[in-house]
Amino acid sequence: MKKYLVLILTLVFSFSFTNYGASASAAAEDKIKAEVTKVKKKVKDGRLVFRGDTNLPKKTKLLIKLDNKKLNYHNKMTVSTKAFGKFNSKKFADGKDPLFSGTYTLTIQTLPASEQIKKVKTQFGKDGKNLKGDLIKKMDNGNKVVEYVELNVKVKSNRINPEKPVKLENGEYTVGEKILPGKYVVSTESEMGGNFFVAREEESEPVVNEILGTKLEAPLMYNNLKVELKKGDQITLKSFDGSVTFTPVTQ
After folding, report:
1. Max alpha carbon distance in the chain (Å)?
2. What is the spatial distance between Cα 72 and Cα 2, in angstroms, rounded to a whole number?
3. How far apart are CA 30 and CA 93, in angstroms?
């Protein structure tokens, strides 16, 4: 009787182990139809943060990149997904400075399977063979990765681009706030024009006191006037029926 009992237990154990091994093997081969959803951005003081959802395993390593070719801006960081595939980036900035206003490209990409932790690597399969779906990208070395791209990430910032023309309306402005110190060509499309003054603290008279416009020739009226502005200068624009453009002079 004992022999029969031992034999039955042995068979049960053997059958259970075989089933477990087969289940584990099947689980490892399960395909993952990768999804990246609900990607949201938050801009504060010119710094940009992203968060979103995926259906990827917990602790999946993601490479998040932000690019703007016109501004020669390229930045990236690596984060890991949390429970339920959620992720959060750190702040994207320009070093210690805020980002410039503009349209950026966001790329969210999984690191190759070989660079993932053991559990994620197993689920991804060798070279990411278990990954499938519209977001799958095949790399030159044959690895499959998940890649999500968003082309029109708009950023509004108060940071002034020193290479971009500045348009100012009638009013008073302090150099260093809405316009940076430097050399400019000042112009208007206004025919009758208006008054352009620049006052400097150490000077008793305005350093610039001209009428800008397009109707008359110099010296009665000027346009495309070259000026140099210093930090703290006070700009006054009066009687213009449009904006005045300050175009930076680049060497």
Report:
1. 122
2. 80
3. 39
